[in-house]
Amino acid sequence: EAGVVQSPRYKIIEKKQPVAFWCNPISGHNTLYWYLQNLGQGPELLIRYENEEAVDDSQLPKDRFSAERLKGVDSTLKIQPAELGDSAVYLCASSLGPGAYEQFFGPGTRLTVL
Amino acid sequence: DAKTTQPPSMDCAEGRAANLPCNHSTISGNEYVYWYRQIHSQGPQYIIHGLKNNETNEMASLIITEDRKSSTLILPHATLRDTAVYYCIVPIGSNYQLIWGAGTKLIIKP
Predict the structure, then answer these.
(1) Smallest CA–CA separation between B44 and chain A, in Å?
(2) Sign of dihedral through CA atoms B91, A48, A100, B107?
(3) Which residues, 6 or more positions from A39, have their beta carbon under 8 angstroms from its beta carbon?
(4) How far is CA B20 from CA A32, B11, B12, B24, B37, in A?
(5) Could you read off the pLDDT of A4-46 as tens digits, one per residue?
(6) Contact at 8 Å (CB) between B30 and B52?
(7) If we measure between CA atoms, which residue out of B2, B11, B13, B1 comes closest to residue B78?
């Protein structure tokens, strides 16, 4: 069974440029999460989807970040424009449902903003 | 919401048991304790979870004290591949939201 797929694995951009990350969750997983992880810290939830609906986006900086999960399968997280402080690892995870005890994580996208 | 406290780092010799402590003194009666780990350059990986009773699976054992204020994750025979950051988490809310601390960096030494 394929795990959570993320692309790209690495991205280097200049500040003020846009960037997008893509995630394909495990087949059949209705819940999808985007996390941000800074160096030396644990992941921080940005947004959670139940199917195609964003049910928790309270931590998403909506002035520059946006996300979508069309058709309730794969998802895209976008930053426009990127700032130096956005340099981090962006993790995608999925689970069978919101109360599922196990979240499955992708390898993450490491973003460097110059 | 229960918070967890873990030592920032630990060492363990290869082949020995690694015992990782976690304090969750404000945990309530129906809250679970979860453990994940994150190997360098990978996403976190679920290990085990428990409520009251001790739990064991193919990866580890989880010992929860009777008062539930602390727990210990045990890797019975640590290998070099167990070097990782280990996170102890008490999920919050009905949707079991995971609030991640900094975890314990476990280094297995040959």
Answers:
(1) 6
(2) negative
(3) A88
(4) 29, 10, 10, 13, 12
(5) 999 999 999 999 999 999 999 999 999 999 999 999 999 999 9
(6) no
(7) B13
Residue pairs between chains A and B whose CB atoms are closer than 8 Å: 51
Interchain CB distance below 8 Å, A40 and B102: yes
**B91: Cα within 13 Å, side-chain hemisphere:** 21
Residue B74: burial class (beta carbons within 10 Å; 0-12, 13-18, 19+): middle
Hey, is the C-beta of B43 within 8 angstroms of any chain A C-beta? yes
What is the C-alpha end-to-end distance of chain B, expressed in Å? Answer: 39
Mean pLDDT of A84-88: 97
Asked if B9 reaches chain A (Cβ–Cβ under 8 Å), the answer is no
Q: Tell me how close the Cα of A81 comes to any Cα of chain B, in angstroms.
A: 26
Q: A7 — contact with chain B (CB < 8 Å)?
A: no
Report strand pairing: A10-13 vs A109-113. parallel
Indicate the burial class of A7 (C-beta count within 10 angstroms; 0-12, 13-18, 19 or more): middle
